[in-house]
TrEMBL record, chain A:
PROSITE patterns: ABC_TRANSPORTER_1 (PS00211), ABC_TRANSPORTER_2 (PS50893)
Protein name, entry field: Carbohydrate ABC transporter ATP-binding protein, CUT1 family
Gene Ontology MF terms: ABC-type maltose transporter activity; ATP binding; ATP hydrolysis activity
Membrane topology: Peripheral membrane protein
Species assigned in the record: Consotaella salsifontis
Family of this protein: Belongs to the ABC transporter superfamily.
ABC transporter domain: residues covered: 10-240
Gene Ontology cellular component annotations, sorted alphabetically: ATP-binding cassette (ABC) transporter complex, substrate-binding subunit-containing; maltose transport complex
InterPro entries found in the cross-reference section: AAA+_ATPase, ABC_transporter-like_ATP-bd, ABC_transporter-like_CS, ABC_transpr_MalK-like, ABC_transpr_MalK/UgpC-like, Mo/tungstate-bd_C_term_dom, NA-bd_OB-fold, P-loop_NTPase
TrEMBL record, chain B:
Domain called ABC transmembrane type-1: residue spans: 74-265
Gene Ontology annotations of biological process type: transmembrane transport
Keywords linked to the UniProt accession: Cell membrane, Membrane, Transmembrane, Transmembrane helix, Transport
Name of the protein described by the UniProt record: Carbohydrate ABC transporter membrane protein 2, CUT1 family
Cellular compartments annotated: Cell membrane
GO CC terms in record: plasma membrane
Bilayer topology annotation: Multi-pass membrane protein
Secretion signal, residue range per the UniProt entry: none
């Protein structure tokens, strides 16, 4: 595990959250260090957004403590926690111009006007918002609005940036651009950021450390490659990586483990010989790589990912072989118990 | 270019239906207006004809302006209506915001309790209201009417507005909280402008029954100095003789202020729709 260094910016101690009888956060412990980019990832309903809201102070934790920059903040209002937040729906103030949207938070905090102007200027140059400063949110495109929202966060110079699925409302092209901008912003400001997403590609590309959440619990915390190579359990193994990992019942292959997992890219395909003989059901040609869906005799439906173009028509017979040491073994509880 | 929606037959049919509806809706109003400019015989001989050189008469308006203090009645009606609308909108929106925004024990129950007034007519409580007003010395004051009308308008206002408040983006309110805005500023500066169209709807629904009401002015404030227009017009309707010229003229005049208020709110309605919101 990549050990984080530097001072602790955020510490969660046994944080739980109940809505009535429903427990949505079940005891989260986490330590975030200065300059880290942390991504909370998980399927919808796993509690990642609620956790972010608890950190921001927009929700109260039912139990547990939240420490930001060495201060216990449970009774501190959101505005005084030294945080800034970027929302999925941008949440710009519709009645204020871009400039005033960025100024409002500092004005509320009583920052001197000259200092506000300086910070707005720096942020707007950084995010190339200069031509839009006098416009109103309704006159901007989605991508521009999200840049303004990011600018509004930057001018606060917070100790902690919070991003709540900021790219979900953007189209595919803009999403990649804005992702790049956020990554550059992180490097330039050397800021500590927490980013919530359900998209594992965003998580893999942005994060220093990924926190995988499921049903209100942390499944695993680690660097992207660590989660990819050494997932702690079946859930993480299935969630990280695209296309999804293949899961095969251990008994079918005569293994003592409950389940075996192999990533589609860790299979070799050969027309003549291999471990699993099967028939191609469907082939997806993406140019850069090819996904084959193969109905095998021994292991059921398996996805294989090949790099480059591979000609295989549905109905063709192929043989799949797992790369040595890449097959993961899971026990009854889903825990990883080794490789083969 | 062939677009189904712009075919001439369709648009003629649509306009035909709309024009027919407009005629039906406006007919009684037009009848009142044209007859208010005629003399008594003309009203009864041919109620549907326009005022001609022989039948034209301003006697109704003259009577109205001479008898009684109609300017004062108008002032009373306007004060009662406007103040009641302002109070209904303010308190209704605040209650709706609290109900839709904050989770607290008994939230749903409180919402149901506040909506109860939609189902139970306030007039059932007239006797108790009168006793209350007598006890507090508010009989024959405009305050008594304003209080009753505010209570009467609140249930529907809370009900409609809380539905709309639920639709205001949580992110926007949370952004305000992170920027350090107080809950009051979030309510007045961020939420209210976004629900303005529904406020206009509530204002129109609230205004018309108040302006037209005869019951409470008659019971709570029948004094000369606190008469409203509808009550004032009643004095021309006698048990044996009714001064139709005066009644029609008074009614025609009573349409004007409410029409102006309606125009103001409907403009708000359009402006509310066109303002850029979250997305």
């Amino acid at each position: 595990m990549a050990e984080a260094t530097g001072t602790s910016i955020l510490e969660l101690k046994a944080v739980t959250k109940k809505f009535g009888p429903v427990e949505v956060i079940r005891g989260i412990d986490l330590d975030v260090r200065q300059g880290e980019f942390i991504v909370f990832v998980g399927p919808s309903g796993c509690g990642k957004s609620t956790l972010l809201r608890i950190i921001a102070g927009l929700e109260d934790a039912s139990a547990g403590e939240v420490w930001i920059a060495g201060q216990e903040v449970s009774s501190t209002p959101p505005a005084n926690r030294g945080i800034a937040m970027v929302f999925q729906t941008y949440a710009l103030y519709p009645h204020l111009s871009v400039r005033d949207n960025m100024r409002l938070g500092l004005k509320q905090a009583g920052t001197p006007a000259a200092e506000i102007d300086r910070r707005v200027e720096v942020a707007s140059t950084m995010l190339s918002l200069d031509p839009y400063l006098k416009r109103f949110p309704a006159e901007l495109s989605g991508g521009q609005r999200q840049r303004v929202a990011i600018g509004r966060a930057v001018v606060r110079e917070p100790t902690l940036f919070l991003f709540d699925e900021p790219l979900s409302n953007l189209d595919a092209g803009l999403r990649v651009n804005t992702r790049l901008e956020i990554a550059q912003l992180h490097r330039r400001l050397n800021a500590t950021m927490i980013y919530v997403t359900h998209d594992q590609v965003e998580a893999m590309t942005l994060a220093d450390r990924i926190v995988v959440l499921s049903a209100g619990r942390i499944e695993q915390v680690g660097a992207p490659m660590e989660l990819y190579n050494n997932p702690a359990n079946e859930f993480v193994a299935g969630f990280i990586g695209s296309p999804k990992m293949n899961f095969i019942e251990g008994a079918r292959l005569g293994d003592k483990a409950k389940t075996l997992g192999i990533r589609p890219e860790h299979l070799t395909v050969d027309p003549n010989s291999g471990a699993f003989k099967g028939t191609v059901v469907h082939a997806e040609h993406l140019g850069g790589d090819t996904n084959l869906y193969v109905e095998t005799e021994k292991a059921g439906l398996i996805t294989a990912r090949l790099f480059g173009e591979y000609q295989a028509a549905p109905g063709a017979t192929v043989h799949l072989t797992p790369l040595p040491g890449r097959m993961l073994r899971f026990d009854e509880t889903g825990k990883t118990i080794g490789t083969m | 270019m062939s677009k189904a929606t712009s075919s001439p037959t369709r648009s003629i049919a649509a306009h035909g239906v709309l024009i027919l509806y407009t005629v039906i809706a406006l007919f009684p109003v037009i009848v009142i207006l044209i007859n208010s400019f005629k003399n008594r015989q003309a009203i009864f001989r041919s109620p549907l004809s326009l005022p001609g050189p022989e039948s034209f008469s301003l006697i109704g308006y003259q009577t109205v302006l001479k008898q009684g203090d109609f300017l004062l009645y108008f002032e009373n009606s306007l004060i009662v209506t406007v103040v009641s609308i302002v109070l209904v909108l303010l308190f209704g929106a605040m209650a709706a915001f609290a109900l839709s925004e904050y989770r607290f024990r008994g939230n749903t129950l409180m919402g149901l309790y506040l909506a109860l007034g939609i189902m139970i007519p306030i007039r059932l409580g007239t006797v108790a209201i009168l006793q209350l007003m007598v006890a507090s010395g508010l009989v024959n004051t405009l305050t008594s009417l304003i209080l009753v009308y505010t209570a009467q308008g609140l249930p529907l206002a809370v009900f409609i507005l809380s539905e709309f408040m639920k639709q205001v983006s949580d992110d926007l309110k949370n952004a305000g909280r992170i920027d350090g805005l107080s809950e009051y500023r979030i309510f007045f500066r961020l939420v209210l402008p976004l629900v303005r169209p529904s406020m206009a709807t509530v204002a129109v629904f609230t205004m018309i029954p108040i302006w037209n009401d005869l019951w409470f002015p008659l019971i709570l404030a029948p004094a000369e100095s606190t008469k409203t227009v509808t009550l004032g017009a009643q004095m021309f309707i006698g048990q044996f003789v009714t001064n139709w010229n005066a009644v029609l003229a008074a009614l025609s005049l009573a349409i004007l202020p409410v029409l102006i208020l309606y125009l103001i709110f409907s403009r708000q309605l359009i402006r509310g729709i066109t303002a850029g919101a979250v997305k």
